[in-house]
Predict the structure.
Amino acid sequence: MHAEAGDQLVIKSHCLGEPDRKAEIIEVHGKDGAPPYVVRWDDDGHESLFFPSSDAVIEHLADKPS
């Protein structure tokens, strides 16, 4: 898994009908874009250190803020 600050982390829902959970990656602490990441969750704005598992995907956004 490789990410940069500004990318979006998406946690796929485990239950039918529940939305995916999304967060903005604000810091990358691993070597060469690897986890862990500091993320800001879209649903409540909470920031946390996150170690993604196999249900997570990184979306590399084309237009990142400067």
